[in-house]
Each structure stands twice: as structure tokens, then as C-alpha cells.
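[Backbone geometry]
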Amino acid sequence: MPQERVLIVEDEENERTGLAELVSSWGYRTDTAVDGLEALDKVAAFAPSIIITDVKMPRMSGMELVERLPDQSIAVVMVTAQKTTENAFQAGRLGVRDYIEKPIDFRRLRSILTNIGEILNTRVENEALRRRLRDKGALGLLVGSSAPMREIFHLIEQVAPSTASVLITGASGTGKELVARTIHDLSPRRNKPFVPINCAAIPETLIESEIFGHEKGAFTGALERRTGCFELAEGGTLLLDEIGEMPVGTQAKLLRVLEDHKLRRLGSKVETSVDVRVLAATNKVPDEAVAAGELRRDLYYRLNVFNIHMPALREHKEDIRELVKSLLADMNEKHGRNVSDVSEAVLNVFQSYSWPGNVRELRNTLERAVIVCEGGLVETRHLPPGFGQNVRVVVNDPDAVHLGVGTTVEEAEKLLILKTLQATNNNKTRAAEILGISLKTLHNKLKEYGRPQEVLAGEE
């Protein structure tokens, strides 16, 4: 049975007493207050671990109550008769655990209280785990002892126990999905599914089916019912990677699901309730994506309750030694090898390199080295040919892009893209990273140039 104390703050007497009786019947110890001012007095005397509060009340609102709580570890569930994006954003900013509408869905409220109870019961265990991980310079699958990474660890520890949406930003290859997985693994949902979906890798005509699912016969080729990612992640966490590549129309439907916690499969007339925590990631600058019309402003506000920005590897090179050790252990297990370390010469090359592909490029470089390494130490000869020389466009370079007066921007762009592909041996992933564009954009450019065969080749 639950042991938590729940304080219910509501100015309407019938709603206040009825809710108190219901929550008490679930096994919680309860007390009540008529507004925020009385609630502050009750907090001192009753010492609740959870507060369920209305938003609009006389003398002191629910929002002001949250701001003035002496103990910010108290979990708050906000209740409102009129849910707005502005109120939801403010509640998230204040650290409110959840935000529900009247009339209250009591099954959802009980689920929320159960989740909060799990968080409280595992707090001591999680703190011990985090302390051990920090001592090792790691958190989940993330590695690093530098100041930027310690800040990332701190932010993850803060947000993981909550139900808040998180927008993870940063360049390609910086580890955004690892951040999402670590948030999931440190949350009360860790025993439920973690479902990542890359919005840039799914054709626009199929993305709604992938996310929301469809019924048999919903469209040509829909031969059977398909369960979407939201339902697959039920009770757990859904990562929407490269959210800026999602079609704007689909973004509108996603926003509705986030607001109502209900979805409708394509071709269905019935809504299905979902309990899923949504995390999103993008390699774009969110404000620029909003200004360009690639990301809906209201969806951005809904997802950006909490932001974690991943630094480029060149901004925390002091972590390269720890990253190398961690990645080598992974590569040894994957390929059945026994490579213990890299030479000092290799480490020096790594430290002087700019890493445009970030940690993903470091991983790929080490994986190749482990495969070709004959002994237990990676030497410079095991690195890819020409490694460490960034692809550059210079006047005296025979591979340089030479532009004559009168060359249009479109022609210059095409020459630069094709020359970069040539320099990377048609490795489009590497070329996209060097050019600073998404892989999807590169694919689209190649199609424009009438080179569809290159869209299908050279992936890594």
C-alpha cells in the first residue's frame, strides 16, 4: 500500500472532499486546503510528498503556490478546468510533475500517483547509482569527466525522474540518442519500452502510419492493422529523433496527442489512450527551424519543457581518452578482439583532429582500427588513409572547387556537394557531416542532380 502523504488544494468544497476521499481509498494519507495560502501552512504541518492543486483559486493560485513551496522536492500535480499551452509551459518550467484537465480522469490520476510513488521509493537507490557513475566519469552509456559532460549528467539527473518532455539538441553524432536512453533508464519507466524513431529516415507518406499506426484498408497497401510507435512505447518512452524533419501536418497531429494523451490510428474512428513520455532530438537550431517553418512554434514550446544541448566533441576533447577506452571495450566485445588501448601517437592525432562527425566519427574510426589491428595496441597505421586531414577547398589543391565569375549559387552548391562526395569515396553520411547538412537533404540534392544511384550507395 502507498505510504505517501497527499495534500489536495481546491477551493470548491465538493470537489475537494470528494477527491480527498477517493485518494484516501487508494491507500494514501490525505489532507486538504482551500487555497495556496492555507496549503503553505499545511505543508509545514502535514509534510506532504505529493500535492494535487487547482490552478485558479482565491488569494493564491496553484502556480504561485508551486513557486513558494519551501521544499522543491515535493511532487506537484496541477489540475485545471481550462488547459492552455501557456499554462502547460509555465507548469513545466516550475517543475510540475503532471498537468491534467477537469473533469479528472481518475484512472490517469491514479497512474500518475503510482509513478510518483515509484520515483520517491527509488530516490535513495538512484542517488547511490548516480554517485557511483559520477565517480567513474560515466552516466549510463555516456562517458566523460569534462565540465560540459558533468553539466549534461546533472541535467539528466534532474529531469529523468519527472514526466516532462525533453528537447535534446546538438550536431549529428554528439550522442543525443544516448542522452534519451539514459533519461529513460534513470526514470520510473525504465522497465517499460524505449522506442526511438528517426523522422528523417521515414518517407513522408509513411511517417503518420509509423507513429500513430493504421487500420486494415486505411490506404492502398494497408493489408493489416499496424501498431504505431506510440502504442509500442506504452508505459515507456518514445524518442522522436530529427523532429525538425517531420512534416508540419504530422506535427499538428503529434501536438494533439501530446496534449490529450489520445491518438487515432489512420482509418480508425476510435481514439486510444496512451501513456508515453515523449523525448525529441534535433541537429537543427530550434529557433531557426521555427522561423523557417520547419518546426511548429506550439510544438516546440510543448517539447522544449526541458532542454539538453550536447556539445560537439571538439568542445570537450579532454574526454577523448575515456571515450576511447569505453569504445574499445565495446568494439572488442562486438568483434571478438582484444585491443587494449591506442598509442600515444594515435591519441595525439585524435586530440589535434576537429572531429566534424563528433563521437559517432570517433566510434567508426576506432571500429575500423580494431578490425585491422594485428596486436593489442592501435597504431597510426591502423587509422583510415589520410585520417586527420579535414576535407578543405583551397586554391592550390588539385581537388579544389574552382568557380568562375558568373557561377550561380545553385551551380556552386552542386560542385561543392559532388566534390565532397568524391573526397569521401561516396560516403554520404561523412559528406553530410562535413557539409553541415542532414543526410535527408543530401539525398534530395542528389535526386535533383539526376544521380539517384548515389542515393542508394555509400551509406554508413
